[in-house]
Design brief:
Layout lengths: L16 E6 L2 H9 L8 E5 L9 E5 L1 H4 L9 H7 L3 H4 L11 E4 L2 H18 L2 E6 L2 E5 L9 H16 L3 E6 L2 H10 L5 E3 L5 H5 L12 H9 L5 H6 L2 H8 L1 H10 L15 E12 L2 H21 L2 E12 L3 E13 L2 H12 L7 E9 L2 E2 L30 E2 L3
Parallel strand pairs: 2-4, 7-8, 9-14
Antiparallel strand pairs: 1-6, 1-7, 2-3, 5-6, 9-12, 10-11, 10-12, 10-13
Helix pairs in contact: 5-6, 11-12, 13-14
Bound molecules: thymidine-5'-triphosphate and magnesium ion (MG).
Length: 404
Amino acid sequence: MGPSARLPGTAARDRIVAHVDMDCFYAACERLREPALRGEPVVVGMGYEPGTDSGAVATASYEARAFGVESAMALSEALDILPRKVDVAGSGHPVDEAGFYRPVDMPFYESVAAEARTLLQERAGTVREVSIDEAYLDVTDRTDWEAVGTFARELKSAVADEVGVTASVGVAPTMSAAKIASDHDKPDGLVVVEPGEVADFLAPLDVESVHGVGPVTAGELRTLGIETAGELAAADPSVLTDRFGERGRQVHRFARGADDRDVEPRGRPKSLSRESAFTEATADPDRQVDRLRTLADGVAERAKSRDVLYRTIGIKVVTPPFDVSTRARSLPGPVADGELVAGVAEELFAEFLADPVRKLGVRVSNLSFADGEQPSLAEWADPARGETGRNPTDDGQRSLTEYD
Ligand code: TTP
Ligand code: MG
């Protein structure tokens, strides 16, 4: 049996799970190479061209958030509430009410994330990476409940000293409580929820913080008068299953703190993809192709950073109202070639060119991994997938809704 196997019928062991999430990660990376940005409002824009107001906010430092800037906001809107420092000079606008804007630089952020991953892997037996800045650690065999506070503080210091960014950490006996705990005291947070405290910890929180409850489900629950996790936990399970089916039963369990998922290392992805929506459908071929190329570059970059070759290149096109079309082409052999991804994506897109398009995606599949290892079982059976409600794509990476 593997380390996470459990005899049928036995109760969940008291796991010690830590969830680690870096604070304003892209902005923290920018500060790492540009220390003058420390303590300043910093906005990192996806699709942002310095000097313009194009793109959308990928993240903002906490100083910028204090002005109301937040992820996925149109960059032009962010600039309205927080102008660029360089623009306000001599304008009479107070300089301390202005910020620094930087474009997304994925290769750099990936390299910082790789350092953090190495460190987490040294300090925990089992690590499940969920996104570029977020991972679950099973630390049951490294510490105990008396010592875990110290353990987590040392982990945070190591991330700060060796990687140079701050992390928030949540510790709990379950994955879902650990995740909520890491978010509870951000930034630079450390929250430990001991066994027996989970239900009390969850009870006052908004129902949307319950694992598996996204904004839509939360809205429906509110119409049923269920606003907090505690109210969800106390709700009649049959009402929930009538309304939401099996998922109703699941979120009811999560709200009560029950979650017997083990921290499983992430399996090999079957494909890598990126997608991005236009705020409004666009029929402008230049914007369409431009976006397609950006997505293709992003996918190729990701494959390269993971040492992955691919044999199939595909696109996804969403046209109004919500019609999804996919097209794919397989190559004679595995390649790693960004220009080819962009070129094939563009050819596949030709039949849609100048149609109104809401959303575009680029995907590579038929992957081969450079180290020749067999894919792990976790790849085939992964109950924890698709959990964040923020459209993780199949490699666990977020897709950003861009505004333009
Ligand atoms: P998050 O961990 O959600 O956000 P964050 O690290 O910036 O801030 P914090 O955790 O302190 O709340 O996401 C990690 C990175 O992913 C983030 O730095 C930028 C990117 N991202 C996007 O590109 N688009 C998004 O909509 C979100 C939420 C994040
Ligand atoms: Mg984060």
